[in-house]
C-alpha cells in the first residue's frame, strides 16, 4: 500500500485537488492518505471531506488518517512514499499583514510578496526551518520518500530542502502548465495550445517561454506584433482606466463584462479580423509581462501582478503613474486573503457538508508524479530543482525550473544549456537574494538577510542601504518567534 502524507492538510481546497486526483488514479486507489496539520478544526474539515470523496469516487478503498500537532508529525510521515507540502507559517495574521505594513511605512509597496522582495525573504525565513524539521523526520522514518513542495517562495524553500537535507524533492507550481494557454487566449489566437510545441525554462515565477511553434511555424513574431499593438493602445488609454470604462459600459447597458466581450469577439470574427477589443480588456490585466516581452524578447510564466515586484521598473515612488497605466494591483495578496477568509464558511459548506461531493482531475502534477514512480510510466513535469549544470549560464546554487522526466527512478531534470543572456541576467537578479536567504537560514547569519534584501531588485531600487537595514530590523522584531535564531 502506497502512503501519501499531506503536510498542511487544513488547506482544504488544495488538498481536494491533489488527493482527489490521487483517488482517481488506479495505482493509488488503495493508498493510505495521512493528513497532518496543527489546526484541529481545519484538519477535521479535510478529514471529513476526504472521507466523503473516498466513498463517492473511490468506493472507500483508500485509508484516511488524521494527525494533529507536532507530537504526531513523525507518525504521519512514517513509511510514506510521497510527502506533499502545503503549509503556511504565520498565516494572514500576523505574518502577511506584517510583511506588507512595515515595508509600506518605509515607502516600499508590494503586490503579492510571497516569492521575492522583502515579503518573500521573510516568508522564507519563517518557512524554511519548519520544512527542514519535516525533512529531518523524513530522514528517520521515510528516507526514500519524494517531497512534493507546493509552498512559496518556491525556489528558496525547495533549494533549502535540497541543500539542507538528504531528501529527494521537487518544487511544483501552476504557472508553467497554464502559460501558453493564457498567452494565446488573451491575444485572441485560435490555435489549440495542446497541439503546439513549446519550451520553457528559467526559475520559478520567472521562467521564460523560449519558443512556441505550430508545426514548423514560429508563432512568436505574430504574438509579439499583436502584443505590441495592444500594449501601445492600453498605455495610451491607461490600463486601469480602460478596464473601468468597459466595466462602466457593461453596467450602463445592464450587461456583464462577458456579454460585452462576447459581442465584440463575434463582431470581429464575422468581419474576418481578430478580436482586438476583447484582447485589450484581457491584456489590461497582463501589461507588465507583455511589455517585458517587447523589451527582452520572451514571455514570462508568472502573472503581471507577481512580476511587477520582481524587477525595478514598475512599482516606483518616482513614477507613481505607472500603477494605473499598467493596472498594477498593489496590496493584492492581503486583499485576496481577506476575501478568502470572508468566503470560507460558504466554501466550507460546499466541501465538507456535501455528502455527495465528487471530483474531476485537476491540472496539478502531484498524482501524475506518484503514478509515474509507481508504474514506471514516464511523465513530464516542469519543476524546481538544483541547477546541476542544467542551465549553464545560471549559478550552480540556483534552484531552477526546467522540464523533468519522472519514472521509477524518480526526478530526472533535463538539460537546457544557455538561456539568452538578457534572460539569464534578469534571472540572476532574483537568484542573488534567493541564494543569500537560503544561506542565512542554513548558516544562521543575520547579515546575509540584510544583504539579500539589499540585493533584491525592487527593494534596492526604492530604498537606501540604511533604510533597508532598519526595515529588516523592524521585521525581525515584529515576526519574533516565527523566525529562526540568528546571530
Explain this structure to me?
With 487 residues, this protein is an alpha/beta fold. It has a domain at 176-330. It is 53% helix and 14% strand. The chain has 20 helices and 13 strands. A six-stranded parallel beta sheet has the order 3-2-1-4-5-6, sandwiched between helices. Strands 7, 8, 9 and 10 form a four-stranded antiparallel beta sheet that branches. Strands 11-12-13 form a three-stranded antiparallel beta sheet. Strand 2 (32-37), helix 2 and strand 3 (63-68) form a beta-alpha-beta unit. It is globular and about 60 Å long. The relative contact order is 0.14.
What's the count of strands?
Answer: 13
**What is the makeup of the main sheet?**
6 strands, parallel
Could you tell me the strand content as a percent range? 5-15%
Global morphology: globular
Widest sheet: strand ordering: 3-2-1-4-5-6
Mean pLDDT level: 97
Instruction: Please tally the helical runs, counting DSSP H or I stretches of 4 or more residues.
Output: 20
Helix-residue proportion:
40-55%
Radius of gyration from CA coordinates: 23 Å
Class by alpha and beta content: alpha/beta
- Unreliable spans are none
Beginning-to-end CA distance, first to last residue: 45 Å
Amino acid at each position: 500500500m502506497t502512503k501519501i502524507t499531506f503536510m498542511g492538510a487544513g488547506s482544504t481546497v488544495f488538498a481536494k485537488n491533489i488527493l482527489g486526483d490521487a483517488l482517481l488514479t488506479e495505482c493509488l486507489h488503495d493508498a493510505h492518505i495521512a493528513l497532518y496539520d496543527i489546526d484541529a478544526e481545519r484538519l477535521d474539515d479535510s478529514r471529513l471531506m476526504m472521507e466523503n470523496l473516498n466513498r463517492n469516487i473511490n468506493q472507500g478503498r483508500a485509508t484516511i488518517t488524521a494527525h494533529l500537532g507536532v507530537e504526531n508529525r513523525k507518525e504521519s510521515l512514517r513509511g510514506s512514499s510521497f510527502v506533499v507540502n502545503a503549509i503556511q507559517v504565520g498565516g494572514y495574521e500576523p505574518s502577511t499583514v506584517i510583511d506588507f505594513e512595515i515595508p509600506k511605512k518605509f515607502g516600499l509597496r508590494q503586490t503579492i510578496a510571497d516569492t521575492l522582495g522583502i515579503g518573500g525573504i521573510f516568508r522564507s525565513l519563517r518557512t524554511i526551518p519548519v520544512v527542514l524539521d519535516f525533512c529531518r523526520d523524513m530522514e528517520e522514518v521515510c528516507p526514500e520518500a519524494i517531497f512534493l513542495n507546493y509552498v512559496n517562495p518556491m525556489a528558496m524553500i525547495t533549494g533549502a530542502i535540497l541543500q539542507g537535507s538528504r531528501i529527494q524533492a521537487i518544487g511544483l507550481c501552476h504557472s508553467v502548465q497554464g502559460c501558453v494557454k493564457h498567452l494565446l487566449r488573451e491575444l485572441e489566437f485560435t490555435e489549440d495550445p495542446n497541439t503546439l510545441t513549446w519550451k520553457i525554462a528559467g526559475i520559478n515565477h520567472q521562467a521564460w517561454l523560449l519558443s512556441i511553434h505550430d508545426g514548423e511555424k514560429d508563432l512568436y513574431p505574430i504574438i509579439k506584433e499583436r502584443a505590441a499593438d495592444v500594449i501601445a493602445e492600453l498605455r495610451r488609454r491607461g490600463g486601469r482606466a480602460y478596464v473601468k470604462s468597459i466595466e462602466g459600459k457593461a453596467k450602463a447597458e445592464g450587461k456583464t463584462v462577458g456579454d460585452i466581450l462576447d459581442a465584440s469577439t463575434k463582431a470581429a470574427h464575422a468581419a474576418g479580423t481578430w478580436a482586438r477589443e476583447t484582447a485589450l480588456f484581457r491584456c489590461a490585466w497582463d501589461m507588465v509581462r507583455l511589455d517585458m516581452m517587447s523589451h527582452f524578447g520572451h514571455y514570462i510564466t508568472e502573472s503581471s501582478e507577481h512580476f511587477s515586484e520582481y524587477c525595478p521598473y514598475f512599482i516606483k515612488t518616482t513614477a507613481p503613474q505607472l500603477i494605473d497605466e499598467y493596472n498594477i494591483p498593489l496590496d493584492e495578496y492581503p486583499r485576496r486573503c481577506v476575501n478568502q477568509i470572508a468566503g470560507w464558511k460558504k466554501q466550507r459548506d460546499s466541501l465538507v457538508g456535501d455528502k455527495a461531493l465528487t471530483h474531476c482531475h485537476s491540472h496539478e502534477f502531484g498524482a501524475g508524479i506518484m503514478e509515474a514512480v509507481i508504474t514506471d510510466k514516464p511523465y513530464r513535469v516542469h519543476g524546481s530543482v538544483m541547477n546541476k549544470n542544467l542551465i549553464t549560464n545560471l549559478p550552480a546554487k540556483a534552484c531552477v525550473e526546467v522540464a523533468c522526466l519522472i519514472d521509477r527512478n524518480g526526478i530526472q531534470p533535463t538539460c537546457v544549456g544557455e538561456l539568452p543572456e538578457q534572460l539569464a541576467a534578469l534571472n540572476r537578479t532574483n537568484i542573488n537574494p534567493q541564494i543569500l536567504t537560503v544561506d542565512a537560514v542554513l548558516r544562521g547569519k543575520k547579515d546575509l538577510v540584510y544583504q539579500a534584501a539589499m540585493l533584491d531588485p525592487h527593494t534596492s531600487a526604492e530604498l537606501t542601504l540604511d533604510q533597508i537595514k532598519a526595515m529588516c530590523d523592524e521585521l525581525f522584531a515584529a515576526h519574533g518567534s516565527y523566525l529562526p535564531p540568528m546571530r
